[in-house]
Design brief:
single chain; 295 residues; mainly alpha; two-stranded antiparallel sheet; 71% helix
């Protein structure tokens, strides 16, 4: 796939890879290889246990058949519109990270800031951007997805979800699960709100809107890498241990690598429902859902 700025893409991609590698080496060097994997508790696990399911998922995505090769939903749009939208979306995502990192708020006050800034910067700003740019879409006729001539196409992303899910949740590399005694009604409400605010909104913003445009500007893998690190960066605020070097390195080797899996999943299949399902399970362990259903 030809991008508008391939040299910039190679530079950004190289820097992104270097950030992930240096972060992992830093954690190994200071003996902090057990990282926090959730902002909800203090549980830790070796960071390579987070890598292995993601790497297996990436390999499955690459080698399994029935994917959209070199298809970009906006490939017939004007370059100036893609550039404007890409810059505005990236800045909006950056401001979201900055707003969480510079605040001194804690507890519920921080949660309100998180919710409001996320909805404003990741939903309202893109909505206004696309609304004002709608004239472009009226004049242009973006290429539609050419259907893959196989009734079994849907099995490919489903296979990826199932195999990745096994390694992520039920293998020796799996994320630990802690049972909770929270009232089911409260827990279901929290999971539903979290699903909409985190899984749905984040995948719409970071992958569907931002990464798609960066792919045209920089190339597929540079866009995946840049989007992954931007997505990972806001987690520094919720995984904070008080040590900036550890916090930054932790989210880069954790969410930064998981973001590569999510980004490649989007680049190959262009099915946002697949991303939302995977992200949803990342935030709500399947055993937790089973516990709610059969309690």
């Amino acid at each position: 796939m030809i991008s508008y700025y391939p040299k910039a893409g190679k530079l950004i991609g190289g820097i992104s890879i270097l950030v992930i590698l240096l972060s992992s080496l830093w954690l190994i060097g200071i003996g902090e290889t057990n990282i926090r994997y959730s902002g909800d508790h203090e549980g830790t696990m070796p960071f390579w246990n987070r890598w292995i399911p993601a790497i297996i998922g990436i390999l499955l995505i690459h080698f399994l058949p029935f994917h959209h090769k070199n298809y970009l939903p906006l490939q017939s749009s004007e370059q100036r519109h893609i550039k404007l939208q890409g810059v505005v979306l990236f800045l909006s995502g950056s401001l979201f990270t900055i707003s969480l990192l510079i605040t001194s708020l804690e507890g519920m006050a921080f949660q309100w800031l998180y919710m409001i800034s996320k909805i404003f910067l990741l939903l309202f700003i893109p909505f206004i951007l696309f609304l004002f740019d709608r004239g472009n879409h009226r004049k242009e006729h973006p290429k539609t997805v050419k259907p893959i001539k196989s009734r079994w196409y849907w099995l490919t992303p489903l296979t990826v979800i199932l195999i990745w899910g096994y390694f992520h949740f039920f293998s020796v590399f799996s994320t630990p699960f802690d049972s909770t005694e929270v009232d089911p009604t409260i827990l279901i409400s929290a999971l539903l709100i979290g699903f909409l605010i985190n899984s749905v909104l984040e995948e719409l913003f970071y992958r569907l809107w931002l990464q798609t445009r960066l792919e045209l500007l920089l190339g597929t893998w540079p866009a995946i890498l840049a989007t992954s690190l931007l997505w990972a960066s806001w987690h520094i605020a919720v995984h904070s241990s008080g040590h900036w070097d550890v916090d930054i390195a932790t989210v880069m080797v954790n969410h930064g690598v998981i973001g590569l899996f999510l980004g490649y999943l989007w680049a190959r299949f262009r099915r946002v429902w697949v991303l939302i399902i995977v992200h949803g399970f990342m935030n709500a362990h399947p055993l937790q859902l089973m516990e709610i259903l059969f309690r």
